[in-house]
Specification:
By secondary structure, the protein is of the alpha/beta class. Helices cover 31% and strands 22% of the residues. The protein has a four-stranded parallel sheet. A three-stranded antiparallel sheet has the order 1-4-5, covered by helices on one side.
Length: 163
């Protein structure tokens, strides 16, 4: 049985001065932590959904993923800086320390914040919305745990991120 671990987020947000939309997850999964980049689990549909929304090829490498995000004026980060968690289980998250969003917001053109799934929305609303002053738009989770949502249904909802 896995045990709780206290972990700190180890990779930087992806953004630049032209980023207009910020997509927030909750906290990196075990696979993302191993890969040192966002949505690293091969079954997570994040990159596939974004590629379909923007009608392009799915980026493969970290450099391709960063370039893809910046080309489409998207910033990506997570709500949580550190927490206690079992594996990748969002439902186990406790002892939350939220990220300081001022660095991203002050050095970008962020107009809209989107959250990837219900737990990210709950955490953002509880811990960060007062700090940013920007209400988040909840999108359905691209996690494989959200099996009720097909890629097609996800794409229909995620089209909201297109300028």
């Amino acid at each position: 049985m896995q045990e709780y671990e206290h972990l700190t987020h180890t990779f930087d947000p992806v953004f630049d001065k032209d980023s207009k939309g910020l997509i927030l997850g909750s906290f990196p999964s075990v696979k993302s932590r191993e890969n040192n980049f966002y949505y690293g689990h091969p079954q997570n549909r994040f990159w596939k959904v974004l590629a379909q929304v923007f009608e392009t090829e799915v980026p493969q490498t970290i450099e391709e993923k960063k370039a893809f995000l910046l080309e489409h004026h998207i910033a990506v980060w997570d709500v949580i800086e550190s927490c206690t968690i079992i594996g990748s289980s969002d439902s186990s998250i406790k002892d939350v320390v939220v990220n300081d969003f001022s660095k991203v917001l002050e050095n970008s053109s962020i107009e809209t914040i989107y959250v990837n799934g219900g737990k990210a929305y709950e955490l953002y609303h509880k811990y960060a919305e007062k700090q940013t002053g920007i209400p988040a738009i909840k999108l359905p989770s691209t996690s494989p745990a959200n099996a009720a949502w097909s890629v097609e249904r996800l794409c229909d909802e995620w089209k909201r991120i297109v300028d």
